[in-house]
Design goal:
heterotrimer, A alpha/beta (339), B alpha/beta (319), C mainly alpha (360), B: 319 residues, alpha/beta, Rossmann fold, eight-stranded mixed beta sheet, 11 helices, C: 360 residues, mainly alpha, MetI-like fold, two-stranded antiparallel ribbon, 67% helix
Chain lengths: 339, 319, 360
């Protein structure tokens, strides 16, 4: 079992700077990610929240460079311990994926290969990146299954994915991801395909593992409830850009972007009263026809003409609380003018 | 006049699953389920995957032939003789906005299909007018009728599905996970629409979802299902404030709450183990394998669903 | 302290250049301008657009159209019949055997010199029975194309009906019907064809004796049609059944049932329109297979009866004289290749453009 990671000489283990990713389809260029940046300190948990089309998953795939054709990173840098991952050679990227940064996907049903036993699949991850014998790898796999809470690991190791339940499969995925003690674990919608009671188990497991192994985690989800008390920092994305970032208290109790406010208002969970929900008007943005201004402007009831014409920049509004919204600019200027 | 619109009694839906060359095992998707829905009321049906909630809805609409049990609609028993007529009274909105609309039909034809099937309009112009009316009822413009389903977003497609369900002026609609596949910001729009239509047209709903928060918001009463049986059924507030069955308690505590303070402070009851396969339902109370209060009796006898007072039903020996 | 940090958000909001007039609320119209819906395209229009971009497929289409035009108008232009032996002044012209392209026989030359008329040239020369070769190739192409298309049509009809019934019914009926398909699949087709021809030859001859067109085709040809109809529908049936099984899973079928639609409406309006593209593609790819099979059969002597030419039988006859008159083999062989290639490329193009399974 690994011990706590020693104090990192790096301030940030991952830095994404001005990332741009597009898909070049027959119908045109789909701009999935348009200038995303964030910094991840070692051992911290970052939550990326957004709906479909926000670019959150594409960001993760861009970091690992596992985009499928016709997707391509068209700009920006991804610095892992200071090195630009986007400039890695093929060999470097293979050493990077799975060993330094691993990912678990949404659907455990399709992420595991049905024709290999789960033992084989975990062994594979170990053997690819470390110099262990098969015997040692198998022992390590059993250890990992134990770590992720799979009961009877010696028996399970010989089973096939279809013999396990959804929750078990997700645990196996986590075991595979942790096999080489990565510095960062990316979890792409890890609980969306699971039942609520299993979701709770998996989230608890991830929190335990994070404390035990000291790795950084990036959780990508559309469910605000999932990241409410797990994350050190939360990023809200819309239309391929970051709208707002801050810690959980900032985001939930003091949102500074209209989209964040809209999301919180439209959730039925926070109110037990039977008043009408206040939904966000309109439909999600068409990434083929991105407007010049703020991507959210067409759906925002506080939109101003400047919102349609100019992209807002992220401004610091509190301690580590940033939002990209012209309404904040207006309010601050008003305050300043009133003084 | 009786205000009970839909009355389901002892519904059983068993499917035969082939397990060997000649052997079959029964998959007891729905096992002796009874409930009623009043006019204008919404009954929420919640549970995790494999609990049988979708099967309940489809059996109610006779899309599967029920293995056993009876159903009464507006006092009349439902059987294969009157089901065609009753299809004008009972409709369904499906989960997946992408596969519930025929990609080769225009939106107008999709919405108008119930009208065509039941031959409600002889005149083409009147039919089209009705279609336009339905589309504006769900917030779409009538000029969209010429378009095809793939040109619309998920939320808009779901609206089309709702328009289709409303075409024949039904009294009852089963909403089978109708908002689960939508983005959060769109979900709220569709939920509002369901509520508005209910008020306007006096509809009754069976609202099925796995997100208990959405079900709470939409429903007057809620039924919780586990592996084919209803294990608790009560008014929404009762279920949330005073849950009786251990499964309900853990379900409510496991739901992710988008409020950091509440989330940090609450005590989550994390159940051990996984949901058993519906092919091998444990004897007695199906929940006993994960229940912290299970006793020997739970393995031998299935607890009946009993009224604990004030219309709050629960099926548990120990609570 | 954030070292090495993205300096972008250190800006003081007050330092931004702003134009106060822009800070008025945007109207709904201004917002709506961003929300234009893309132009409506149907599945067909979209597919045709894709197809027209595929140059190989378009070229194949043009080639096929050209061939069809050729075989329609050629007989009107060329004054020779496919079984007509060259005669000059009513006398059989023995010297007109195996002429090279664009040459005349001695007798023809004499005739032209005497009368000053210009006889229509033999574009591909003549065969060993002094028949104009070009027109024979034209007629051969006709036969091959007609056989190919008709046979594919029969396969389509039987396969479609069988496959849709089997697919829609499901359960035991489907099980039994598919086992039957398996049995037929395992029969050796060439052997069956030969057997059928032997048997049918006896029985068919009296049946078709009254009908000139069938007589011309010959019992061989008819038995080929029959065998195609009996044997080759199976792959189409499997394809259609597979399509229907996967379409049945869609919720819109369930929705149609919940609305009250009966079986025939569901099949007509919901299932069939969704399989059509796959069926068209399969048929387009079936045609060259049929043509090739017919050519092969004619090549080995089991095809149309003489004197009706077929590309395969022409190739067979030309085989012997391959050394001396290579073009006689080249002409029908290239025509077969051209047609088969064109149909295959067109079929591939159709599949790339229309097959819903390949869509992203």
């Amino acid at each position: 079992m690994s011990k706590q990671k020693e104090a990192m000489p790096y301030e940030y283990i991952l830095q994404v700077k001005d990332l741009h990713t597009s898909f070049f389809t027959d119908a045109g260029e789909v701009k999935a990610v348009n200038g995303v940046h964030f910094d991840l300190p070692p051992g911290k948990v970052l939550g990326i929240v957004g709906e479909s089309g926000s670019g959150k998953s594409v960001t993760a795939y861009s970091i690992l460079r596992i985009l499928t054709e016709p997707g391509r990173v068209v700009g920006g840098e991804v610095l892992f311990k200071g090195e630009d991952v986007l400039k890695y050679t093929k060999k470097q990227i293979r050493d990077f994926r799975g060993a330094k940064v691993s990912i678990i996907f949404q659907d455990p049903m399709t992420s595991l290969n049905p024709v290999y036993t789960i033992g084989n699949q975990i062994d594979e991850a170990i053997l690819l990146h470390t110099k262990r014998t098969r015997r040692e790898a198998r022992d390590r796999s059993i250890e990992l299954l134990h770590l992720v809470g799979v009961n009877e690991p010696e028996r399970r190791v010989k089973q096939y994915p279809h013999e396990l339940s959804g929750g078990m499969r997700q645990r196996v995925m986590i075991a595979i991801a942790l096999a080489c003690e990565p510095d960062i674990l990316i979890a792409d919608e890890p609980t969306t395909a699971l039942d609520v009671t299993i979701q709770a188990q998996i989230l608890e497991l991830m929190q335990e593992l994070q404390k035990k192994l000291g790795m950084a985690i990036i959780i990508i989800t559309h469910d605000l409830g999932v990241i409410a008390d797990m994350c050190d920092e939360i990023i809200i994305m819309y239309g391929g850009r970051v709208c707002e970032r801050g810690n959980a208290d900032d985001i939930f109790y003091n949102p500074k972007h209209e989209y964040t406010r809209g999301l919180l208002r439209s959730l039925p969970s926070l109110k037990r009263s039977k008043d009408r929900l206040i939904p966000i008007a309109g439909s999600p943005i068409d990434l083929l026809n991105l407007p010049v201004g703020c991507p959210f402007a067409a759906r925002c009831d506080k939109a101003m003409r400047i919102c349609l014409e100019q992209m807002p920049e992220e401004l610091e509004l509190g301690e580590n609380h940033y939002a990209a919204c012209w309404v904040n600019v207006r309010d601050i200027c008003k305050e300043a003018a009133d003084e | 006049m009786n205000d009970i619109l839909v009355d389901v009694r002892h519904l059983k839906q068993w499917f035969s699953i082939r397990t060997g060359l000649f052997a079959t095992t029964p998959l007891k998707a729905v096992d002796d389920v009874s409930f009623f829905i009043r006019r204008g009321e919404t009954l929420g049906l919640v549970g995790e995957s494999g609990c049988g909630k979708t099967t309940v809805a489809r059996s109610m609409l006779q899309l599967y032939k029920p293995t056993a049990g009876e159903m009464y609609f507006d006092g009349k028993p439902v059987n294969k003789n009157n089901i065609r007529e009753l299809r004008k009274e009972m409709q369904m909105v499906f989960q997946d906005p992408y596969s519930s609309l025929n990609p080769r039909m225009t939106v107008g034809d999709i919405v108008g299909e119930p009208l065509d099937v039941h031959k409600l309009f002889k005149c083409r112009k009147e039919r089209n007018a009705r279609i336009a009316e339905l589309m504006s009822l769900v917030g779409l413009s009538s000029e969209h009728a010429r378009r095809y389903a793939h040109e619309f977003s998920g939320g808009q497609r779901q609206r089309i599905g709702i328009a289709r369900a409303l075409a024949v002026n039904p009294q009852f609609i089963a909403c089978d996970e109708s908002v689960s596949a939508l983005d959060v910001s769109i979900q709220a729009q569709i939920i509002n629409m369901f509520k508005d239509i209910q008020t306007k047209l006096g509809l009754s709903y069976l609202f099925i979802a796995h997100d208990i928060m959405v079900v709470n918001y939409m429903s007057d009463r809620v039924a919780v299902m586990y592996l084919g049986k209803i294990i608790e059924m009560a008014a929404t507030d009762d279920i949330n404030d005073r849950p009786i069955h251990p499964y309900t308690v853990s379900l409510l505590s496991a739901v992710p709450v988008p409020d950091p303070k509440i989330s940090r402070e609450r005590h989550r009851i994390i159940l051990e183990g996984d949901v058993p396969s519906p092919l091998r339902i444990p004897s007695g109370c199906a929940f006993r394998t994960r229940c912290p209060y299970a006793t020997a009796q739970c393995a031998e006898e299935t607890p009946p669903l009993i009224d604990r007072g004030g219309g709050h039903f629960a099926a548990c020996w120990n609570k | 302290m954030r070292e090495n940090h993205n300096k972008e958000f250190k800006k003081n909001p007050l330092s931004i250049q702003i134009d106060l007039s822009k800070f008025t609320l945007a109207t709904d119209q201004e917002k709506a301008q961003q929300d234009i819906m893309r132009e409506s395209t149907t599945f067909w229009r979209d597919g045709m657009r894709k197809l027209s971009k595929n140059r190989l497929a378009m070229a194949s289409l043009i080639v096929l159209i050209f061939i069809v035009i050729l075989i329609i108008i050629a007989p009107s232009i060329v004054p020779y019949g496919y079984e007509q032996m060259v005669t000059v002044n009513g006398v059989r012209d023995k010297s007109a055997q195996n002429l090279a392209p664009f040459t005349y026989s001695e007798l023809e030359q004499e005739y032209m010199d005497d009368n000053g008329e210009k006889l229509f040239p033999h574009i591909l020369g003549t065969d060993h029975l002094t028949r104009d070769y070009f027109i024979r190739v034209i007629y051969g192409t006709r036969v091959s194309l007609i056989v190919g298309i008709f046979a594919s049509f029969i396969v389509l009809l039987i396969g479609l009906i069988y496959g849709s019934i089997s697919g829609y019914l499901g359960g035991k009926a489907d099980l039994i019907m598919m086992r039957f398909v398996d049995i037929i699949y395992s029969l050796p087709d060439l052997l069956m064809i030969i057997l059928f021809q032997v048997v049918l030859d006896q029985t068919l001859a009296p049946v078709i004796s009254g009908i000139p067109i069938l007589e011309k085709l010959g019992t061989n040809m008819i038995s080929i049609f029959i065998v195609f109809g009996l044997l080759y529908w199976v792959s189409m049936a499997r394809l259609v059944r597979g399509q229907i099984l996967s379409i049945k899973e869609n919720e819109y079928i369930l929705a149609a049932r919940s609305v009250g639609a009966d079986t025939s409406r569901i099949i007509r309006k919901h299932i069939l329109p969704n399989c059509i593209s796959v069926i068209i593609i399969a048929t387009a790819l079936q045609i060259p297979a049929a043509i090739f099979t017919e050519s092969f059969l004619s090549f080995i002597g089991l095809g149309v009866q003489a004197p009706m030419p077929s590309l395969g039988s022409l190739a067979n006859t030309a085989r012997e004289g391959m050394q001396s008159y290579p073009f006689k083999l080249l002409a029908p062989a290239s025509m077969i290749c051209l047609i088969v290639l064109a149909f295959n490329l067109l079929g591939d193009g159709l599949r790339d453009a229309f097959d819903p399974r390949l869509r992203r």
